[in-house]
Amino acid sequence: MVEAHSNDLLIGVLALQGDFKEHINMLVDSGADAIEVRTYNELESVDGLIIPGGESTTIARLLIAYDLMDLLRFKINLSFPVWGTCAGAILLADSAPDLDRPTIGGIPMTIKRNAFGTQVDSFETDLQFLDLEGGDYHAVFIRAPLITDIAADVEVAACLSNGEIVAVINKNLMATCFHPEITEDTRLHRKFIELVTNYKIKKSSKV
Amino acid sequence: MTTDKNSNSNEGEHLTATMSVKVGLAQMLKGGVIMDVTTAEEAKVAEEAGAVSVMALERVPADIRAQGGVARMSSIDMIREIQDAVTIPVMAKARIGHFVEAQILDAMGIDYIDESEVLTPADDQNHIEKTSFRAPFVCGCRNLGEALRRIAEGASMIRTKGEAGTGDIVEAVRHMRELWGGIRMISNMTEEELPSAAKNLQAPLGLVREVKKLQRLPVVNFSAGGVATPADAALMMQLGADGVFVGSGIFKSDDPERTAAAIVKAVTHYQDPVSLVEASEGLGEPMRGVATANFSEDQQLSVRGN
Predict the structure, then answer these.
(1) How far off is chain A from B21, nearest CA to CA, in Å?
(2) What is the CATH number of the domain that holds A40?
């Protein structure tokens, strides 16, 4: 396990809308430096990005309105690490047929919005998460999406007990249909920090 | 939007409608604007402008004020039309204490129920017991005590009341300052001072302790009642709101589409005056509004429910 060094790693949380403050708190609790990202320059300054839960329609619209969409796609192509939770997972999918605007994309998968019905059908449950030490992960699903199809090289990271996919990892990208930021379990945030650290090491060794 | 339950999901081991789920639902609205809409077309304008949710209403508060009469839960047909028109969450209002209106909204699969002082109260003593509903509730408050009483009844989201339908921000500011003043007071108290504070606030001691621990409300808090311009919205964000409700301010303005997008921008970039300039330029006239300073008690909607 690679330790995160807070003085040389800066992780951004997309702060256009949603529960970005909770992600910031989780990152700080996990030993990373974190900033809210709303502008082009802020996005340029970070080593990795979390796209929080919120309204995917709203965030997708604001990414274009505030000129962040092209830069984000460009960076993702260059292996920039991004983790999307719930709305963020929808935005990382190459295909979200029921979102009425384009996603950011990056993960070759299809995702279905509000897959469990309206929010009165939101729920909590325990999951086994790929390579996560310390036992089951207690996941909170809120108006959650469901990953309905993935390309062969995308790694499944967690499923519901009936086999439906709710988390994937695809190289530099992570997507979870649930909300680790509103629990007190920082294990997935630490996992993402590890991903960002590895990316940064790889990037600096290329120079 | 479908209300069908997913038959594939293994319901047996899933905990639904827990308090953490309900509070979490409201978390996802943070940093967003919730807009009052009266038709499916307005709902689409709101969604396109970047609203995080719409409030389905038969009349915006400014019209309720102007026209008088009894204001009730909106018609089922109108709410359904709006639910069908957008993919963002749809909220609807029930009268204070009218638990049957709330039951009906819950059964329709509405995303949030607003037990609202904007409608004519159905019970002048009691609010709805909200914990037994599947849908989360949002309720208004003017100060910390009122907020904690609503949370104790099961509200999972709070909005400061302001004075709806006026376009005058002064009451919204007053209520937000009162609320945060109360939170700061509690945060600075010693443990042994809390029981007496709870008594004075007329709020449960457990929740008062939680406020001290968190140094904020245990649920999301939006601002409502009086926001008419991007500057008003950013003002409420800088005063500590998690997001903003805009009622009459959008569809009573000259250019609802631009005003809606401008207020969304002001809420996202509330700390950046340059963005606020961009959000504010070229908007045309905001809603005309009515100053609240000389309101008699029966003109004040915010005194309803306590």
Answers:
(1) 6
(2) 3.40.50.880
Establish if A88 belongs to a structural domain: yes
pLDDT digits (tens, 9 = 90+) for B236-263: 999 999 999 998 889 988 899 999 999 9
B23 torsion bin: left (phi>0), alpha (psi -120 to 50), beta (else): alpha
Report if residue A137 sits inside a domain. yes
ipTM of the complex: 0.87
- Would you state the pLDDT for residue B3? 34
Query: Taking phi first (over 0 means left), then psi (-120 to 50 degrees means alpha), and beta for anything else, what does residue B163 get?
Result: beta
Full domain range(s) for residue A139:
10-205
Distance CA B103, CA B96 (A): 13
Catalytic annotation present for A189 = no
List all residues of chain A from 13 to 32 with a beta carbon under 8 Å from chain B.
Answer: 15-22
Domain contains A4: no
Of residues A156 and A100, the one with the higher pLDDT is A156
Number of domains in chain A: 1
Query: Are the C-beta atoms of residues B241 and B160 closer than 8 Å to each other?
Result: yes
Report chain B's mean pLDDT, rounded to a whole number. 92
- Is B16's CB within 8 Å of A123's CB? yes
Does the beta-carbon distance from B89 to A123 stay under 8 Å?
A: no
Q: Is residue A2 part of a domain?
A: no
